[in-house]
Amino acid sequence: xxxxxxxxxxxxxxxxxxxxxxxxxxxxxxxxxxxxxxxxxxxxxxxxxxxxxxxxxxxxxxxxxxxxxxxxxxxxxxxxxxxxxxxxxxxxxxxxxxxxxxxxxxxxxxxxxxxxxxxxxxxxxxxxxxxxxxxxxxxxxxxxxxxxxxxxxxxxxxxxxxxxxxxxxxxxxxxxxxxxxxxxxxxxxxxxxxxxxxxxxxxxxx
Length: 206
Fold this sequence. Notes:
By secondary structure, this protein is α+β, with helices and mostly antiparallel strands.
């Protein structure tokens, strides 16, 4: 049985997987149903390789991390005791890889935005490749929870506008209470002027 190799390349990343079809599952000869090895080459870093567990750990950490960063949410993915973890590091992204062999120091790689994007594209191409019949053990893409998006906004920015609006409203109400209302001026009708009646002349008989 011939081994099948597929390669996924971007400017700063190249991922290669090798394996065999699972004939018991009815796979065609060009499919990969059993992963035998994989290799990842990042610019400026040594070539990485490992087992399927290492590759799944890389996908479980990197892909949700990139989705959260696109939404402005900064958080770390992957456990410190696991094979892979990634988190923000000032203006870069710190990718930490740990070997399953004893005595091997963890490998730390700093990726910029372009390198992280190329790595995600390679992993995405592998995940969506219909020729690779592997079932990956990580959750499907789901929209971020509302609380995660809200938490990315600093508390001062979230509370600032409502507090300022409340202060402005309170000042307006206080000013309205302090300023006296204009008194109503009652207009009095002028008294009618007296009209002099002409004197009646009396006539006497002569």
